[in-house]
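Protocol step 4 of 6: structure prediction from sequence.
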Amino acid sequence: MTDEHARVVELVEKMALVRRDLKQKGDLEKYTARLARVEQKVEALAAAVEPTDPAAAKAMRAAWHTPARSLAVRNVEHQREQDS
């Protein structure tokens, strides 16, 4: 995965965490249409990246659908890099 793709994955993850926070606070209904459009754009971006970087596309989708897990995986990878 390129650095640019990694940054996009982080952005998608942050957006998904905001979505989760809105849902937990009960404010999701106000933003349902906007978040649906964001999800469409994330999927379109992942589809565009998939032919050249399938791992990045998979990471983008995972970051959108399970942001907390995506963040945990990235933290573990970062920890491994520091330990090496």
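Step 5 (inspection) to follow. The mean pLDDT is 88.
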